[in-house]
Amino acid sequence: MIVQKAEAGALEIHALKQSRITLKLIGTTGFFFNAYSAKAKRSLLIGGGKKTTAEKKELKHDPEEEFRSSVYRLPDGPTLLGFPSPGVKGAMATAALETPGVTKSSVQRLIFLPEEKIKIWGKPYLRCDVVRSADMNRTPDIRTRAFLPRWCAEVDIAYVMPTLNPHAIVSLLSNAGLIVGIGDFRQEKGRGSFGTFSVHGDNMREDGVQDLWDDITAEGRAVQEAALTDPEYADGETAELMAMLDGERAKRAA
């Protein structure tokens, strides 16, 4: 008697599902923009080249131009300022290293930020800081960036279900806001503590931050455009440096 083998069961594959959540971020420390300036991009594209005699006589820095070039801009909408969404996703992936139950690689695969840039509310101020260059001698230099003492943002996050759920996304983003941050000189880098934030959903009134959110979001596109056109200084040290620069400009113009 011939015994026939039972047919193997068909492989059943279920399609993954995607869901979305919109969350609000409120800065708990100030925020530094760090976009590449047009001058830096030109140098990367074309190369530096030798300076002419006239160029050698120019001042090393143009803080006002560097300030305006340090921000990311949105073409329309309630804010002029934006921030690249990969920076937020990267912060969440880094936070996964300190979050039990999730891995950095899974966050990179399972989370998507549909917007190219997220909206940033808050008034930018011109700030000059002494920094160390990345060369072997760690040469000191002055860097001028846009600094927002207070800021908030809104981020739209898509994620794969059922591996992740809204609670997991909020927890992961909250951890990113606490131990990583976004922008320049952020918490993740060790020496800086900027760019940290708290995360909120629809319960902002219960969290006691609705008034703060309303106050910061009043500093939208019109306020930001005016601040970039006619900058105010972020602190006394910046004001002193700019006063010295203005004195040198006046001397050279005489």
What labels would you give this structure?
single chain; 254 residues; alpha+beta; seven-stranded antiparallel sheet; 10 strands; elongated
Description:
The chain is of the alpha+beta class and 254 residues long. It has one domain. The chain has ten helices and ten strands. It has helices spanning 38-46, 53-57, 63-69, 85-95, 104-110, 166-179, 204-207, 210-217, 221-229, 236-253; strands spanning 17-27, 31-32, 72-73, 81-84, 111-112, 117-121, 125-132, 140-148, 152-161, 197-200. The strands form two sheets. Strands 1, 3, 4, 5, 6, 9 and 10 form a seven-stranded antiparallel β-sheet that branches. Strands 2-8-7 form a three-stranded antiparallel β-sheet. Helix 4 runs antiparallel to helix 5 (104-110) and helix 4 (85-95) packs across helix 6 (166-179). Keywords: Plasmid.
Can you tell me the overall shape? elongated
Give the rounded overall mean pLDDT: 88
Specify the number of helices: 10
For the termini, the CA-CA separation is 112 Å
- Into how many domains do the coordinates divide? 1
Give unreliable regions as ranges: none
Strand content: 15-25%
Helix content: 25-40%
Largest sheet: 7 strands, antiparallel
Radius of gyration from CA coordinates: 24 Å
Tell me the number of strands.
10
Structural class, judged by helices and strands? alpha+beta
H-E order: EEHHHEEHHEEEEEHEHHHH
Keywords: Plasmid
